Structures are given as structure tokens and as C-alpha cells.
Amino acid sequence: MSDVFVLGVDMIKFGRFPDRTVPNIGAEAALMALDDAGLTIKDMQALYCGNLGQANAMVGQRILQEIGQTGIPVVNCANACATGATAFREAWMSIKAGIYDVVLAVGVEQMGKGLLGGAGGGDGIPKEGLLGSGTMPCVFAEAGMEHSKDHGTTFEQFAKISVKNHHHSTMNPKAMYQIETPLDVVMNAEMISYPNTKLMCSVNVDGSAAAVLVSEKKAKELGMGRAVRVKASALASDPYTDRDLVMPDVNACTRLAAEQAYEMAGVGPEDINLVELHDCFATAEMLHYENLGLCKDGDAGRMIDEGHVELGGKVPVNVSGGLLSKGHPLGATGIANIYEVCTHLRGEAGERQVEGARLGMTHVIGLGTACGIHILEKV
Amino acid sequence: MSEKSLPAVSYLKIPDDGDPYLEGHKCGDCGAVFLGERSVCSKCFAREKMSAIKLEETGVLHSFSVVYRSFPGIDVPYVSAIVDLDGGGTVKGNLINIEPDPEKIDFGMKVKLTYQDALGRKDKEGNSYLSYFFEPA
User: Fold this and answer.
1) Structural domain of residue A360, as residue ranges?
2) Between the N and C ends of chain B, which has fewer C-beta atoms within 10 Å?
3) Residue A120 pLDDT > 60, yes or no?
4) In Å, how far is A112's CA from the nearest CA of chain B?
5) Does residue A184 or residue A1 have the better pLDDT?
6) Which residues on chain B are in Cβ contact (under 8 Å) with A242?
């Protein structure tokens, strides 16, 4: 089987674009990724499109209607917050299978403002606030509180994650925000769902990201100069655990995908130079230090206290600013974090460059549950 | 419109002659307990081994959050709680009759189920609903 390479990859600056359409936002990133690869839509053999909000509305085809209707196969996919990573993985699989040599993956989302999630719906009466809360800040607060219960993790430690990611975003011009948020500001922001304050919740933004994936044969033909090798691609659904259907278990699903990704790449967590992981809430990032094997179980609090996960630390996490500050356009996030890691492996990340980065990991998890992990390697 | 209160969720049972209770479905092969009816066990994959059981009224607080912002019209703050029931089954619900202050809520505290009107919520036909809540035991 051929190795698969990212030849072109880019994302738009995340923001709020209420006057544009979803395909139009997606088309912009698609053109940017094509330009980055030095190719055109005529070179693409298939398009894999990830979008959640208009999952039944043929977003991929409508992107081609804006940038070139060449008649190639289009697959539209939706997989909660793992949507973009799933589209990327489908593209990767098509090359692995030997079907295509050059394909395009696009992730795009247009979001409203406000709380996501909510319990119940359907018949009868609304269940939100009656049977606990199904809002995302609460669901991830409950997951974080489980860590507090087991390991004594504090509100302050969770808050420090938000301080770190907001600091990182000041060096990323494509992030929604570039604003320092000191610890007292994070902790004193409006409490949404304890321990997640407003500044510990990801930002709902509009955005898109895209990647051109090629086979080894094609990469050699076109020039390997800025190519990045996809060393592993893993996708897991939630394995049975006792509380999963009542309290979505983001830990077991991530651990399963991580184990598969490390095995496929033939590397271990100690080999990874940077990680873009799913910090949909500050509480979530804490859990994933352990889930991804970046530290031993119970040591996550120390990872943030001792600075191991900040730029310049042992394994910088979310140097892009993460979902907390860069923003979280659901369907785009999985490819945007691949863009971030590729940018570091190419040595093009400017002020926030992780020096000497050779191996990077991306991780997303969507409740329901889907976890997508990619390991990328500098060529 | 029904004269009696309707159950807020399908796994809350209101017998004509007796007290309300929560119903679980337990796998006869592996013992996993689920809320809601099903015919196949997603833990051990056994088919047609599920049987309805009455869940216990007591349990321990596994995790929680104090919710300060919810959707418009919903009273805050309140405690959203994940409870492991004695005898099996995990249930999510509001923890009431306790100050909604994270400092004053202990993991592992004993709680019990209580059945009350669903915070005055009615459906389009004007029906009242009965719901379940947790309170300190």
C-alpha cells in the first residue's frame, strides 16, 4: 500500500460570516489548499466533504458548483465533532486502497451563537434542567469532575489550560481571538457549568479548512519539498463502558483510537513533538493528556502546572490556540488541526513554531461518539 | 388531557396501584443494566436475554456539575448529577434539596430517588408530568 502525503493544506481565518453560505465558506479553503499544493480542481479525482449543520444538503457538490464542476465523485460525511477528521480519513483510505492518486478533503461549518446540546426534545415536555443538563458545557464539566474525583484536579488547574491556549492564540493570526486571558480573568468569567467558565468553553465560529492528499507516486512526481506523511489514521466509536449511554465516555473512545494510531505509526507518545487535541472545553483537554498517553493517569494536573504542554514545553498542546480561542467550527475543526500540525512540520508556523518538530498528532472527538486521530510526519 | 400525571421519560413507570419507580433492562448473560427497552446487549451482544427490572431507590453520586447557564426560561443554578444506583444502572438527573455550591457537594455521597411534578412543565395538550429527582439520603 502506498504511503499517503498531504501536499497542500490551508484554513481560512475563523470568524463569523452570517452573510455567506456554507459552500462559499468551504470553497475558499478548498481553493487555498489547491494553491498550496500547486494544483487545480482539474487535478482532483474525488472530494470528501465534512459538514454537520447541512448534512443532508450536498455541501460537497455545492462547493464544486463554486470552484469547478468536473464530475468527480463526492462523498458528504457527518460525524459530530469528528466530521472533518472523518472526511480526511475517507480521503486517506481512498489513496491507501489504490483507487486514487490525488484527492481533496474539505471541512466547513457555519455556526450560530450560544449553547450547544440539550437533553431530550421529542415528545412530551422539554427535559433540559429537569433531568440534569445535556448542554455541552455541562456534559464536559461532568467528565472533568470525574477526573477531580479520581485525582483531585482543581478548578484552577482546569482554568490554566484556558490561559495557555488563549496565550498561544496571540501568535496565530488565523485564530478567532488573539487575546491574553490571565488566570483571574478566566476564573472570574461568567460561570457556565462548574468548573467551566465562559472562557473555558470553545468559541462557536464559522470556518473551513482543506487538504490535498496524494499517493507516494504522485508526491514524488510533484515534488516532496513541503509534503507531510500521514503516518497513521485511526477512527473509533464508543466501546461499551458502564456509564457511557448516560454519561458519554470520551476517555475510552480516545484511548482506543490512540492505541490504534500509535501502533499503525510504530511510534509512542514520547516521540510526539506537538499535539492539537479536542479542547472543546478546558475540562476536556485535561482528560486527553492521559487518554493520549502524554502522561501517566493522574498526572494531567502536573502537565499543566509544570508547563509541559505549553509552547517550549516537553509536548506543546494546542499551540494554535485550540478550540478555546482559535474557535470550533464543528465540521472544519478536524482538518484545521491537521493544517496546524503540518504547518509546524513544514517549519512555517512563525512565532509559535515548535522548534524541530518531526512528528505531530491531531485528535478530535464528537459525542455520540466518534474519535479521529492522525499522526503526521515531516518528510 | 389525562387526569393523571404522565411519566416524563419512558423508563419512569407509574403503576395504577403502587409507587412510581425507574425501570432498567438487565442482560441475563453479563448483567449490564440499560435504561429503556432493547433486545440486544451492547456489552456482550447476547440477544433476547434482556428482562425488565425495578431499579433501586438509592445510589451514590458519581459526578456532577452546577449549571449556571442553561436555555432561556430554565431556572438556574441547579445541580446536574450522575448517580450509580445500588444494584446496577447509572442515571442522570437533578440533585435537589442541597445548596447548589460545588464546595458543599461530595463525590460518593449517598442519594435517593424522589418522584415529583416535573417543575410545572406541561405539554401542548396541557398534561402534567411526573419526573424523578435525586436528594441527599
Assistant:
1) 4-113+203-378
2) N
3) no
4) 14
5) A184
6) 32, 90
Which one of B6, B22, B62, B65 would you mutate to disrupt binding with A, by most A Cβ within 10 Å of its Cβ?
A: B65
Q: 3-state class of A155 per DSSP?
A: helix
Contacts of A125 in chain B (CB under 8 A): 8, 118, 121-123, 129
Which residues are bridge partners to B60 per DSSP?
B84, B110
Q: Domains (ranges, CATH) in chain B?
A: 6-136 (2.40.50.840)
Q: Give the C-alpha separation, A99 to A77, whole Å.
A: 19
Q: Which is nearest to A2 in space by CA: A143, A102, A96, A116?
A: A96
Indicate whether A121 pLDDT > 90: no
Radius of gyration of chain A (CA): 19
Q: How confident is the model at residue A321, as a pLDDT?
A: 98
Catalytic residues of A: 81, 328
CA proximity to A372, closest of A337, A341, A339? A337
Asked which of A257-261, A346-350, B71-75 is least confident by mean pLDDT, the reply is B71-75
- Could you tell me how far CA B14 lies from the centroid of its own chain? 13
Q: Do A240 and B67 touch (CB under 8 A)?
A: no
Domain for residue A78, yes or no? Answer: yes
pLDDT in tens, A196-238: 999 999 999 999 999 999 999 999 999 999 999 999 999 999 9
Residue contact B81–A192, C-beta within 8 A: no
| A264 assigned to some structural domain | yes
| CATH assignment of the domain containing A61 | 3.40.47.10
DSSP B21-64: EEEEEEETTT--EEES--SB-TTT--BS-EEEEEPPSEEEEEEE
Q: Which residue of A has its CA nearest to B117?
A: A130
Whether residue A193 contacts residue A343, with contact meaning beta carbons closer than 8 Å, is answered with no
CA–CA dist A333, A366 (Å, integer): 11
Rounded distance between C-alpha atoms, residue A220 and residue A102, angstroms: 12
Contact residues on chain A for B26, CB-CB shorter than 8 A = none
Domain assignment of residue A120, yes or no: no
Q: Tell me which of A116, A154, A194, A242 to substitute to probe the interface with B (most B C-beta atoms closer than 10 Å).
A: A194
What is the value of ipTM here, to two decimals? 0.96
Query: What does the mean pLDDT of chain A come to?
Result: 96
